[in-house]
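Final report, Chapter 2: Outcomes

The project's central promise was a pipeline that accepts a single protein chain and returns its three-dimensional structure in a standardized token representation, suitable for archiving and comparison. That pipeline is now operational. To close this chapter, we reproduce one record exactly as it appears in the project archive, with the input sequence first and the structure output second.
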Amino acid sequence: MIQDTETIDEFLTRCSADVEEAVRKAAAAEILPRFCRLAEHEVDQKSGPHDLVTDADRLAERRLTEVLGALLPGSVVVGEEAVHANPATYEAIQGDAPVWIIDPVDGTRQFVHGDDGFCTLIALAHRGTVLASWTYAPARDQLATAVRGRGAFLDGERLLAGSPAPGRDLRVATSHPDFTTDEQKHALRALWTDGVAPRPCGSAGLEYLAIARGELDAVAFSWEAAWDHAAGLLLVEEAGGAHLTRTGEPFRVTGANALPFTAARDAATARRVAELLRTAA
């Protein structure tokens, strides 16, 4: 719980471990017991066959909403499943209150199919600035954290994204075609060019972690739901990376971004990918 005269920065110094405990407990209680054990009635479609939701998503988000809201009184929660039920709740990202942004199971398709490439994403933002993030891959028992200005870490080890090796094709993960407009598909096709090796993305959160670890050079994504991007973008920034929309501006979690956008291991790579996306217009 935040104290009367405490700043959010001081709260993070004191309570980051409590957030880590909350995400681990939510995964242990609601997600891992259902991994590879989902019954048919525990899985539903939202907008289509590639947009799934499970009981693990709903119950983990509910648990995290209660715990995180209690940790920081006066804060609000924007969770993927709550927004699906009531889209108006997304507007809290634009407000003045601190906001917890939650994706309880990022990579639900992988989770449903028994693939361990899924994670839980939590970010704390205030007035459009992401201040801290937690990326937890429970099936791999990996926890990545970032606090603005304090660096990015994976299981306590500092993350430094570095730069792509000269002369090697850029490894870029891109949006699934089902989640792109015709204009966005046209922009993304510009990445199929000499010097770039694009592939479809998996869990957005784990793709951002791969950038922060220097295992992936960039992503190019065509949607802007904050729960998919807030945690990972701060992780990439704090590991030394950068992000840009196709018009050359940093991505805003509050929305109204020119899509597709990119996040990359370094500023030069972000500029290169953004330029390719822009010239396809």
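Archive annotation: Confidence is low (pLDDT under 50) at residues 1-5.
This record, like all others produced under the grant, will remain available to the consortium after the project formally closes.
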